[in-house]
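Q: what does this look like with nicotinamide-adenine-dinucleotide bound?
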Amino acid sequence: MRFDGKVALVSGAGSGIGRATAVGFAARGARVGVADIDGARADAVAQEITKAGGTALAIAADAGAPDGIEAMIAGTVKAFGGLDIVHNNAFGQPTLPSGQRRLAFLGDLDERVWTHTIELGLTGVFRAMKRAIPELLARGGGAIVNTASISGLFADFAIGAYNTAKAGVVNLTRVAAIEYASRGIRVNCVCPGAIDTPLLQPSLSIPGFAEQTLQMIPMRRLGRPEEMAGVVMFLASDLASYVTGAAIVADGGLTAQTGLPTRIPLP
Ligand SMILES: NC(=O)c1ccc[n+]([C@@H]2O[C@H](COP(=O)([O-])OP(=O)(O)OC[C@H]3O[C@@H](n4cnc5c(N)ncnc54)[C@H](O)[C@@H]3O)[C@@H](O)[C@H]2O)c1
């Protein structure tokens, strides 16, 4: 799996899944736009890539805002002469005034949580694809991989906006896939389960959450960011040349089960 001569852009590349993907693309020959709202994190990952002998450009950009989308795509194209691969991956929780709860059932859901989550998690992906597609067409085709979630395929308690945004990403992926399949652009998404990144830490600190989660995952462990990067890189690579419109679940078996309790004692 090589990306020599290719230009890739990863959003939310300063940490977790995005960082692992940016490092992975660069290690396999791509020149990489490392975009993150946190410029210092983007710088650190770009430096890590450069030190390892790769080529990267750090871009401080908000993937939830139109000017941020413009900065990361135009910046990558300007630096490296074009764009072949886009990994739309950025997500971060909204900051609320102290005392306001982010986790809530729909009847109590703070509208700021809804607006932030849809704007960054769904509209941001639409805007990035809209801006990137002409760049990919100018190269004769390319690949887009969006980070959705198993939370886009099924429902969770108290994160309804996230469930809705990620479900939107899954179907937006399919729409773009069928619209551009004949013009050489493949569009897929990865649906991670519970992955050990800073984004998951607040949930893991809820009493009982970590234990219950591990009990529900047949592999009995969290996923690693590098394991998601492997799926993203496969989808972006020529190995996946006949794959488009797919939502690939990578969750240690979590969603393969019905969820009904079993009478068989677990090993
Ligand atoms: N960790 C999980 O369990 C899990 C599960 C399913 C899906 N995901 C998805 O994976 C993606 C990556 O998350 P992660 O777990 O690697 O989290 P992470 O917190 O490790 O990394 C997310 C990165 O995105 C950046 N970011 C946040 N808001 C941004 C914005 N507006 N613009 C640009 N960058 C922004 C952060 O600064 C951070 O560096 C997200 O889309 C997330 O929803 C994560």
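The helical segments are 16-27, 39-51, 66-80, 111-138, 160-180, 201-204, 209-216, 225-236. The first strand starts at residue 7 and ends at 11.
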